Amino acid sequence: MKKILGILGLLIVVCVVTASLSDSFLSAYNVENVLRRSALFGILSIGVAFVIITGGIDLSLGSVVCLVGCGLPWLLTVHHWPLGIALPVVLTVAMGIGLAHGLLITKLRIQPFIVTLCGLLLYRGIARGFTGDQTVGFGSEFKGIRMLATGKIPFLPGFELPAPVVFLAVVAVVAAVFLNRTIFGRYLLALGRNPQAATYSGIPTERMTVLAYVISSGLAGVGGVFFVLDVNSAQPVDFGNFYELYAIAAAVLGGCSLRGGEGSVVGVLVGATLMQVLRNMITLVTTRNNVEFAIIGAVILIGVIADELARRFAARRRTARAMQSVPQAGAQV
To answer: Which pLDDT does position 328 carry in this prediction?
Structure first.
């Protein structure tokens, strides 16, 4: 909870500073844009959070977004597949990728970093191959389904929410219930805290690892659908580039420890929003948009340093309490 409050406070400070430096920050158009982008990246961040909680990592998210984001309009407009078939196919492919990652990690004992790094290269290469490196999009067709990403949903009288925000809320509630209120969520947390102890306790650690990667890639596929519906076209050479960094940064900032065993959905949502507000601040306040990735790298580094310092502080407190309890136990004897 302290981590969540800390990152929430930082988000508020960044918003106040940006609003004071740019009059357009609080404009209706800009707020809607920030909310929409935060929702889209929030979907990816929730997915990768499940992997990080188990102590793993998923570097392939951006390429999965590219593969699905290019694959859906390619199937619909080039091969004229029905939407009812094309959409389930691309989402199944995304979940199949997660299944393959999980099996390679659990059965062949390959490091998650290597597996997903290879995936980062492989899936983008596949997308560039079947599209011929050409931009694919919906054109003026499929306006109905595009409303899922570009439309608005009435929330309160006179107030509408971007549709992706509503979808993110559904995903977040389901993810929070799964993580905090089900036995499988407790299994994932236990796996991240101590894999050996989890195995000795009878937890199906391999199945839980596979499940985490299926969730991560599945939500990356969903994100890919929303991203391409939002922008209406995708160029395979750069669509989804570095999206995995935004997702990982949001999860780390939101309280997910890269060692595993810690994380909350609420924290991830705040972290995802903070990342998009920072991007928006760079665009509005500075003329140096090329420093964006430097800021992302610094944010991830700060998050890791803060996690390490918090871990050491907690360890010292536990040691101090243990030392204080020893004399008391001896006195009672």
So the answer is: 56
Q: Is residue 128 part of a domain?
A: yes
Quickly state the pLDDT bin for 131 (edges 50, 70, 90). very high
Q: Is the residue at 210 inside a domain? A: yes
**Is the model's pLDDT at 88 over the cut of 60?**
yes
Q: Per the domain annotation, does 324 fall within a domain?
A: no
Q: What are phi and psi of 161, to 5 degrees?
A: -105, 140
Instruction: Encode pLDDT of 151-185 as tens digits.
Output: 988 876 777 899 999 999 999 999 999 999 999 99
* Amino acid at residue number 145: I
Q: Using the CB atoms, write b or e for 33-56: b if 16+ within 10 Å.
A: ebbbbbbbbbbbbbbbbbbbbbbb
Q: What is the CA radius of gyration of the chain?
A: 21
CATH number for 238: 1.10.3470
Q: Hey, what are 43's tokens?
A: 């979907």
On whether residue 279 sits in a domain, the answer given is yes
Between 88 and 13, the higher pLDDT residue = 88
Nearest to 75 by CA among 156, 8, 19, 142: 142
Q: 189-240: per-residue pLDDT in tens? A: 999 999 999 999 999 999 999 999 999 999 999 999 999 999 999 999 999 9
Partnered with residue 162 across adjacent β-strands are: 152
152 by DSSP, 3-state: which?
A: strand
Domain hosting 82: range is 2-8+22-310
> How many structural domains are present in the chain?
1
Sign (positive/negative) of CA torsion 170, 173, 175, 177?
negative
Tens-digit pLDDT profile for residues 230-280: 999 999 999 999 999 999 989 988 889 888 998 899 999 999 999 999 889
Cα 298 from Cα 54, distance rounded (Å): 24
CA distances from residue 155 to 78, 213, 270, 314 in whole angstroms, order as listed: 37, 33, 20, 42
